Amino acid sequence: MDDRAATDLAMLVLRAATEVVDGIGEGMAARGYDDLRPAHGFAFARIAAADTTVVDLAEHLGTTKQAASQLVAGLVERGYVVREPDPRDARARLLRLTEAGEACTRAAEAAAADVVAGWNEVLPRASLGALHAMLRRVVTPGPLRPAW
Amino acid sequence: MDDRAATDLAMLVLRAATEVVDGIGEGMAARGYDDLRPAHGFAFARIAAADTTVVDLAEHLGTTKQAASQLVAGLVERGYVVREPDPRDARARLLRLTEAGEACTRAAEAAAADVVAGWNEVLPRASLGALHAMLRRVVTPGPLRPAW
DNA sequence: TCGGGATAGTCAATGTGATTGACCATATGG
DNA sequence: CCATATGGTCAATCACATTGACTATCCCGA
């Protein structure tokens, strides 16, 4: 694979990501969530997955803890997240999704699945699985930056 | 492919894009370009490809023409782009890369190729081509949004 | 056990980039 | 030619993230 093709592949990945992000945004809007940006979704995913603090979240999003704190404040204000005391550390506050927050997460997952379903239509059946497998091998676990 | 796997695939695409963006950023910094963000790169790609005006660029980046104008102003200031009169329309100004701008584009392509080269190491040789082919089929041409 | 340094979190001020709104110059179509 | 649409910029504002400062709590060693 020469440089030209390699650059091309990199651009295809970026374009695919743009489609995913835009598609999720549209799907969320269609489901009645029009006040949430991708950064919120990434935060939801992290908060849902494990006991999460503001500092954890900041690292995961690749931002400062102040920015993460502001983000969380907005989510709390809108009723998607609650802050609970950490029984192990009186400084820390554990973040937890409310029922509304979990409903929102499910909506985002459905929207993401819709985007991929669109790909399924233009790709041979087995290929989507192959795509998945390849990306899984290629990609290293790490943060999902909400902004370029 | 069920919803779970579909969501998972979508996330893999986003993570891959994050790697591409971060990788290019690091590669550019290593090559001495530390004042350029991804949005600039997307602008370069567009300006290099065809006769481009500020409004064209705005559509391509998915922003307003004012934002595109500001972006271009910064690039002009730093010597990467020049504005030339459009012989066909006295209102318009065609954007063109300077030699510095083209050198910068080459550096970005090399950095992108480096990222993909890393993938090449963990993937069977033929697979990278297959990945390319799949994404090409899946992806529709469209804007490359610099921000989520 | 107590004192110093590290860590969790917030508040306030600042800065950067994008958007909205207004405006001028030029094109274009009736 | 006049009305309207389009390319572009300037200015004001807004949204978001960052830097800096500060409090409260934890942890570790003397």
UniProtKB/TrEMBL annotation, chains A, B:
HTH marR-type domain location: 6-140
InterPro entries with a match to the protein in the record: HTH_MarR-typ, MarR/SlyA-like, WH-like_DNA-bd_sf, WH_DNA-bd_sf
Database matches in PROSITE patterns: HTH_MARR_2
SUPFAM superfamilies assigned to the protein according to its UniProt record, in alphabetical order: Winged helix' DNA-binding domain
Record Pfam families: MarR_2 (PF12802)
Protein known as: MarR family winged helix-turn-helix transcriptional regulator
Source organism of this protein record: Actinomycetospora chibensis
